[in-house]
């Protein structure tokens, strides 16, 4: 029926009609392509008469991509309809289920989701309250040698515990462990046990949620599961609604997510799950676990492996396969040798498409620098040359942390080199908060000439007129009162009136007056008013609305805050508490690399993307540990050795209390899991490259080049030496 030429490993998949099917796929195998075509084919053949196709994906942006691809496929066949399929995230599905009967869960119709800033605020305050109530017990967790700087110790531990408790509470909710259940199983434990602290924090956090009518994302999943399990009518409704269920990125699933899908698929029995166990990179800080996809692969009616990939050149594929083999056979920690599945990536057979990119020269290189600063210099030197030589190629630098991204971004800015930033606090996402911060800062000091000019230059007068400097020289000599509220005596020289920028200046004055005259008693409404008057994009308007909502909450706990205080919060750098929402807003747009423009991204954010040329920086034993004696970022230096990884300790304690497992050394087990996940993260990063790949490690202070780059460097050098034409 379909005249498209599918690859040999895709033909059996496209002929699927019913049952459970597991699709383990390697990077670049075309899983989105085959999923969307399979959905389109089932619709064309009339298989959706008994119900729709539900497609679940991990990211909102990937949902948009999948939906648009299915629409395009159907339109090419003459069908202009979306009634036969739905594409959403698992949390959107959970919300849809809960909205049917919120009253059963004691929720109002207007229940709201808590955001990550308020969530962290609730948890951190609960930790501080615990410390103050049980100071002696709390201090027993601290390394005695670090108590000289007790404030620094408290700050570091509280931040570490906030991240830890956020993850742990989420995991308990996904397991269906309520506050009362945790209190019951910890009733015989004293307050020198960190599990008691977890119980206290959980209770305080849960109470705050209920007081404000809020739910979190883990609540959504468990509540949806509870409704489906206990309400037969609702269960029947959703089982009848969906005849087929497809799940993408299944390696990132958690237990509760899998249970929801199993219930929904019970009636028709049609469940297709796609994933790559070697791209499971979130388990150390979320409740996701690749074992759920591994188990599904064993139990499914059929398994169709997609191990052929056309994204990368043979050289890149060979390096990725070498990493898999080295980890499985030679990793110095034997318990980590199963970190990567034995999924060897195959190049596309001759005659099938898309064919792998071909390089005229060996396109992979590796460097070990004497410092992080030298790594940055190496990167900028090489990327500048690459941009000049290949202006139409896409380029990315994949970097371990947002802080390191910021350092490189500042350097690129100084050199006027264009770049995009893929991180939760990228420059693009900071624009809205900084814009609002500058305006509020000016409104708090309306006759400050310098702040007035900042608002004009950076926000209101966008065009870079050649004669703007003459206007600003004139403004410096004026009293702002006279410009904003002129009387008959004010005389503006003809040479200023005749400037090309003058018309924009007059419009800007009118807008500033409106901002100043808006009642400042309602700051949240002032923010929305500013958003209305400025020509913002959809994403910026969404940011404004969320900031206004956050301000309402923050002013309750900070009633003495002035406009100046709020402006300071907004203008502060990348740790800004308002910027968390931007990652969701800008995710809706998705991301498409621009040729000639460098993408700066964390390795985690790069998953699902690809570039012609990829640089991987920061390959040190801190960011990519291999030995159990390496330094691990998740551990808190201010805590005693046995408490250094609180999340690992709590996970192990919970398993023991539930009689599931007795883990003798939770910290070592957590290190093994981190080593394994970082191996997969490096694999993900390598497989983002299509043609060229440059690995850069360095040594600095206690950091040393990761063993990975040393081993990969040996392979790269041997390949380069025998590469024909190099």
Fold and architecture overview:
This protein has 29 helices and 14 strands. The strands form three sheets. The protein has a six-stranded parallel β-sheet with strand order 3-2-6-7-1-8, with helices on both faces. A six-stranded parallel β-sheet has the order 9-14-13-10-12-11. The chain has a two-stranded parallel sheet with strand order 4-5. Helix 3 links the parallel strand 2 (52-56) and strand 3 (85-88). It is globular, with a radius of gyration of 28 Å.
Largest sheet: 6 strands, parallel
Structural class assignment? alpha/beta
Query: pLDDT average, as an integer?
Result: 89
**Which shape, going by the Cα principal axes?**
globular
Count of alpha and pi helical runs: 29
Strand content: 5-15%
Low-confidence regions:
584-588
Please give the structural blueprint.
Layout: H1 11-14, E1 20-24, H2 31-44, E2 52-56, H3 60-76, E3 85-88, H4 90-100, E4 112-113, H5 116-133, H6 135-139, H7 150-174, H8 179-185, H9 194-211, E5 214-215, H10 217-230, H11 232-241, E6 242-247, H12 255-264, E7 271-275, H13 291-299, E8 302-303, H14 314-330, E9 364-369, H15 372-389, E10 395-399, H16 402-414, E11 419-422, H17 427-444, H18 449-460, H19 468-476, H20 480-484, H21 494-497, H22 502-517, H23 523-533, H24 538-557, H25 563-571, H26 582-587, E12 598-602, E13 611-616, H27 646-657, H28 666-686, E14 689-698, H29 707-722
Parallel strand pairs: 1-7, 1-8, 2-3, 2-6, 4-5, 6-7, 9-14, 10-12, 10-13, 11-12, 13-14
Helix pairs in contact: 2-3, 4-10, 5-7, 5-9, 7-10, 7-27, 8-9, 10-11, 10-12, 14-29, 17-18, 17-24, 17-25, 23-24, 27-28
């Amino acid at each position: 029926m379909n005249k498209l030429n599918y690859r040999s490993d895709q033909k059996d998949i496209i002929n699927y009609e019913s049952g459970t099917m597991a699709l383990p796929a390697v990077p670049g195998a075309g899983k989105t392509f085959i999923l969307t075509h399979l959905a389109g084919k089932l619709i064309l053949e009339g298989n959706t008469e008994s119900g729709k196709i539900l497609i679940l994906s991990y990211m909102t942006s990937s949902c948009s991509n999948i939906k648009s691809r299915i629409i395009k496929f159907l339109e090419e066949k003459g069908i202009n309809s979306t009634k036969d399929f739905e594409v959403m995230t698992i949390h959107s599905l959970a919300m849809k289920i809960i909205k049917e009967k919120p009253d059963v869960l004691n929720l109002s119709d207007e229940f709201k989701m808590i955001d990550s800033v308020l969530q962290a605020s609730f948890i951190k305050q609960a930790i501080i309250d615990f410390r103050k109530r049980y100071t002696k017990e709390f201090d027993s967790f601290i390394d005695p040698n670090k108590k000289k700087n007790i404030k620094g110790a408290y700050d570091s531990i509280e931040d570490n515990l906030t991240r830890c408790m956020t993850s742990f509470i989420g995991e308990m909710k996904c397991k269906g462990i309520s506050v009362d259940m945790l209190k019951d199983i910890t009733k015989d434990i004293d307050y020198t046990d960190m599990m008691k602290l977890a119980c206290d924090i959980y209770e305080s956090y849960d109470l705050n949620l209920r007081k404000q009518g809020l739910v979190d994302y883990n609540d959504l999943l468990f509540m949806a599961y509870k409704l489906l399990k206990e309400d037969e009518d609702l269960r029947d409704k959703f089982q009848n609604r969906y005849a087929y269920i497809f799940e993408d990125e299944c390696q990132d699933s958690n237990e509760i997510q899998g249970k929801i899908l199993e219930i929904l698929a019970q009636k028709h029995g049609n469940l297709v799950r796609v994933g790559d166990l070697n791209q499971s990179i979130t388990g150390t800080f979320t409740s996701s676990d690749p074992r759920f996809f591994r188990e599904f692969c064993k139990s499914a009616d059929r398994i169709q492996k997609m191990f052929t990939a056309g994204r990368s050149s043979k050289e890149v594929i060979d390096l990725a396969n070498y990493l898999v083999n080295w980890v499985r056979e030679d990793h110095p920690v034997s318990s980590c040798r199963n970190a990567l599945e034995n999924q060897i990536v195959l190049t596309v057979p001759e005659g099938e498409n898309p064919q792998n990119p071909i390089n005229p020269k060996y396109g992979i290189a590796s460097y070990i620098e004497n410092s992080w600063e030298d790594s940055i210099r190496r990167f900028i030197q090489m990327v500048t040359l690459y941009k000049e030589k290949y202006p139409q190629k896409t380029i990315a630098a994949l970097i371990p942390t947002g802080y390191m991204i910021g350092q490189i971004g500042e350097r690129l800015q100084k050199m006027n080199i264009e770049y995009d930033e893929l991180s939760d606090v990228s420059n693009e996402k900071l624009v809205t908060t900084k814009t609002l911060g500058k305006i509020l800062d000016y409104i708090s000091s309306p006759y400050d000439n310098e702040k007035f000019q900042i608002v004009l230059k950076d926000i209101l007068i966008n065009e870079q007129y050649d004669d703007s400097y003459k206007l600003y020289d004139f403004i410096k000599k004026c009293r702002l009162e006279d410009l904003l509220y002129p009387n008959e005596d004010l005389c503006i020289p003809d040479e200023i009136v005749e400037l090309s920028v003058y018309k924009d200046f007059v419009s800007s004055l009118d807008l500033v007056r409106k901002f100043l005259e808006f009642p400042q008693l309602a700051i949240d409404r002032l923010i929305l008013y500013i958003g209305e008057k400025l020509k913002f994009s959809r994403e910026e308007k969404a940011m404004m609305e969320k900031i206004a909502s956050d301000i309402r909450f923050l002013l309750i706990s900070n009633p003495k805050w002035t406009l100046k205080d709020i402006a300071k919060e907004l203008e502060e750098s990348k740790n800004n508490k308002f910027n968390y929402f931007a990652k969701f807003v800008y995710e809706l747009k998705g991301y498409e690399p621009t040729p000639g423009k460098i993408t700066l991204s964390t390795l985690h954010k790069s998953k699902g993307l690809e570039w012609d040329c990829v640089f991987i920086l920061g390959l040190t034993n801190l960011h990519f540990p291999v030995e159990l004696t390496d330094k691990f970022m998740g551990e808190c230096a201010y805590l005693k050795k046995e408490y250094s990884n609180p999340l690992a300790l709590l996970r192990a304690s919970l398993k023991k209390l539930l009689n599931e497992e007795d883990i003798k050394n939770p910290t070592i087990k957590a290190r093994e899991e981190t080593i394994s996940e970082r191996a997969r993260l490096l694999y993900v990063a390598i497989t983002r490259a299509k043609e060229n790949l440059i690995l850069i490690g360095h040594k600095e202070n206690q950091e040393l080049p990761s063993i990975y780059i040393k081993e990969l460097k040996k392979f790269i050098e041997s390949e380069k030496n025998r590469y024909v034409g190099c």
